[in-house]
Amino acid sequence: MFVPPSYHTPSCPIVNIRLTEVCVSQVFGTVVNWRLTVTESLKTRAASTLSSPILSLPSATRLQASTVDWSAFAQKWRESYGKFTQDYTASKSSSGEDTLSFKTVDQHHHESLISLLDEYQLHGLWSADEIKEISLIWHFLIPWPDSPSGLEEINKLGIQTCTLSNGNVSLLTDMAAFAHLPWTHVISSEHFGAYKPAPEVYKGAAKMLGLEPGECAMIAAHLGDLKAARECGLKTIYVERENEEPWSKEAVGKAKVEGWTDLWVGLEDGEGHRKGFLEIARRLAE
Question: In this structure, what are the phi and psi dihedrals at residue 93, rounded to the nearest 5 degrees?
């Protein structure tokens, strides 16, 4: 039986780490296949509701739910997360202290799901409790096939692995247990009261690990995340994932030619099934 590791948390800097590098990774899309999991979960849940012999739905809701493109719905849900984290600014008092508690990604996912159901005119499709439960789909995402074993191989090299995600801590620890992801540390933007691409997240993670930024390598399937990490002094590793990169083909090509990532792992890189994180591990071992 898989037993999730005992993660270090942010109450104090993690000490006695003297590695040349720690690999910190973006999670959604990089380590896990959110699109497949969320789309299929929504489809399954909707089909179950529509076929229930004991539930009475408004006819308009039933008709609307039967025609929803749940893949497009999932994409809109994901895009709302991107906009939320990009635009988020913690409210500060004149003294510089937070006047409002930090809003987590879980809270956003719940609120945005309610908004999307309203936008799609799916009133009454699910109860308030069901909507809350569905909003937690993001805790239980299926990993890309190479992620668990790839992370383990990186660990075996003596290089620690760590999340550096906008997902909140409870989300990330649930995901690690569910998807058998052997991170040695969990660090979240929640620890810093800010969201990437805020510099304090990248620099704060290195500080928590007891390292200089240049001793950390950021792994991501999104060049925007890597660009922000690089500007904070971290090394950068790009791992291409299908349908994940929001930058245009021209911008991606330009970034690759300019060589501002320290390692570039394309979709076809690696032998056989040894793609993604397994290919990263192989190159780190060279």
Answer: -80, 175
